[in-house]
Specification:
The chain contains 7 helices and 20 strands. It has about 375 residues and is an alpha+beta fold. Belongs to the peptidase S1C family. It catalyses: Acts on substrates that are at least partially unfolded. The cleavage site P1 residue is normally between a pair of hydrophobic residues, such as Val-|-Val.
Length: about 375
């Protein structure tokens, strides 16, 4: 910033006319003419998020997870709800009939029948899942399924009347700098919203093989996990999942799973209770000197070996689509339907080779 400020007088000086020489040999130049200054008009931002909040918050739920006090699998309370007076009050407020609270989180109703999306880490290892709506009504939820590799879960509550719900938006249309609103249940205080922008796309924070987060600067705290991120149309474009923080609280580094990843996983968990991923049976590694991924190892009984893939091959494309990194290839393989054929293009001894691999089903042991 200091360098820029020092350069301004120099830039302004270049606009001045040439100065006549002392000998008077140079002709005076006419002053340059400029168009009238036009004020820079930026697109108007939202003057208030209140209409959006009124529209979507009834579908955002608070989730309390408990375990029976005499359970053999009883756990200690997570550190996120131990120390401060606020956190201790939260813990006491969430106790129900001798149950021990393991934690709390958020979710959102996706269907008026009571289907709810949240994070897997919010509801795993629970004996009882209690869902509270904004109007104070509470329901006991059933777990439909968890995908541990992406930390996505689907639960369901039963209601005699249709419930408020929200709809998906397309995260592929989201741009860095777009306004967003995050909703959830920070520290068990109840329904809460924050606003900010999308800070970055495609973040890998080391939580799993399918990391591809939107980074947000909207404050997200413990208890917000599983809550939705909305665009200004009130559509869910991401699932709030993680924060990076030296203190445990928000420092403006929140991470949400884009809807383009969440939607197919939710659909599988909702309808089937599990997710079947494609499996290649090979270890892929990035290589600095090439675009593509090195085949570092091949399972001799896996689909890759049966399809002719060899150790040392460099994969450059899958299904005709060029790919630069091992991570993008792993996602493409996982997204492929088991028992389908996948065309794989490799460089082998500097020669292109096209192989057809019959994709297998990812073993559950790798989840």
């Amino acid at each position: 910033m200091k360098t820029l400020l020092r350069s301004l007088p120099v830039l302004a000086a270049t606009c001045l006319p040439a100065t006549p020489s002392i000998a008077g040999t140079a002709q005076a130049q006419p002053l340059p003419t400029f168009a009238p200054a036009v004020p820079l008009v930026a697109p108007p931002g939202p003057t208030s998020f209140a209409p959006l909040v009124r529209k979507v918050v009834p579908a955002v739920v608070n989730i309390a997870v408990t375990r029976d006090s005499d359970s053999d699998k009883r756990k200690k309370l997570p550190s996120a709800v131990k120390g401060t007076p606020l956190e201790r009050r939260f813990r006491e407020r969430m106790r129900r009939h001798g149950d021990e609270v393991l934690g709390a989180g958020s979710g959102f109703i996706l269907d008026p029948s009571g289907v709810i999306v949240t994070n897997g880490h919010v509801v795993e290892d629970a004996d009882k899942i209690t869902v509270a709506l904004v109007d104070g009504k509470e329901y006991t939820a059933q777990l439909l399924g968890i995908d541990t590799l992406t930390d996505i879960a689907v639960i369901k509550i039963q209601s005699n009347t249709p419930l408020p719900y929200v709809q998906w938006g397309d995260s592929r249309l989201v741009q860095v700098g777009d306004w967003i609103v995050a909703a959830g249940n920070p520290f068990g205080l109840g329904s809460s919203v924050t606003a900010g922008i999308v800070s970055a796309r495609g973040r890998d924070i080391g939580t799993g093989p399918f990391d591809d987060f939107l980074q947000l600067d909207a404050p997200i705290n413990p208890g917000n996990s599983g809550g939705p991120t909305f665009n200004l149309a009130g559509q869910v474009i991401a699932l709030n999942t993680a924060i990076v923080s030296p203190t445990g609280g928000s420092v403006g580094l929140g991470f949400s799973i884009p809807s383009e990843i969440v939607i197919p996983i939710v659909n599988s968990l909702w309808h089937d209770g599990h997710l079947d991923r494609g499996w290649l049976g090979a270890t892929l590694e990035d290589i600095i000197t090439h675009n593509g991924a090195l085949v570092a190892e091949v399972d001799r009984n896996g689909p890759a070996a049966h399809g002719g893939l060899k150790k040392g091959d460099i994969i450059t494309a899958m299904a005709g689509e060029h790919m630069d990194t091992a991570r993008s290839m792993i996602r493409a393989i996982a997204a492929a339907r088991p028992n389908s054929d996948l065309q794989v293009t490799v460089q082998r001894k500097n020669q292109p080779v096209v192989l057809t691999v019959h994709i297998g089903r990812r073993p559950r042991s790798e989840d």
